[in-house]
Amino acid sequence: MCRRETAPSVSIPRTTVEELFATRGALQKLADNWRERRKFRTGSASTRALDLLVDYPVIALKRLASKLDVSAPQALLAINQLVDAGILVERTGYRRNRVFAAEAMLAIVNGSFGSAPTD
Question: Per the confidence metrics, is the pTM higher than 0.85?
Answer without folding.
Answer: no
